[in-house]
TrEMBL record:
It comes from the Bacteria. This is PE domain-containing protein.
Length: 144
């Protein structure tokens, strides 16, 4: 089967990167790999809580997007023939099921951001902020 003029196969959208134009845009905005543990971020007493809040906002947005649109990563076979079934299975393995799938990369990225939040909270404590100060900077929400 060959794509038609609109990039579809038999009417089903198939982006060669992700299987979904929404996820193609989402993944294009993510780094290739989670930040290395040697990555540095300069924070000080004046910006540590603001930096943590910005990172937490990004975690929340990505978590919400993944929760609501994660199912869009699954590809349905376009027909009942073996080629369509195998192609959908291959896409789903790469997009969702493999250890290095796009879904796993998204989750790894969110985990790396959560670790960064933990580091920023520890830095804030070092700068003399209390747990209440830290909690208040996140709008009263306890962040793990």
């Amino acid at each position: 089967m060959r794509p038609d003029d609109y990039g579809t196969y038999g009417g089903a959208w198939m982006n060669e990167t992700t299987g979904s134009s929404f996820w193609a845009n989402m993944l294009a905005s993510m780094p290739e790999a989670p930040p290395a543990s040697t990555a540095t971020m300069k924070v000080n007493h004046d910006n540590v809580l603001a930096a943590a809040k910005i990172i937490q906002t990004q975690i929340d947005a990505l978590t919400d997007t993944f929760r609501h649109h994660g199912q869009a990563l699954f590809v349905e076979p376009t027909a009942d023939d073996p080629v369509s079934q195998d192609a959908a299975a291959a896409w789903n393995f790469r997009l969702v099921e493999a250890d290095d799938s796009y879904a796993a990369r998204i989750q790894d990225y969110m985990e790396s951001l959560k670790k960064l939040i933990t580091q920023l909270k520890e830095s804030a404590k070092t700068y003399g902020f209390s747990e209440q100060d830290i909690e208040a900077s996140f709008g009263g929400v306890v962040v793990d």
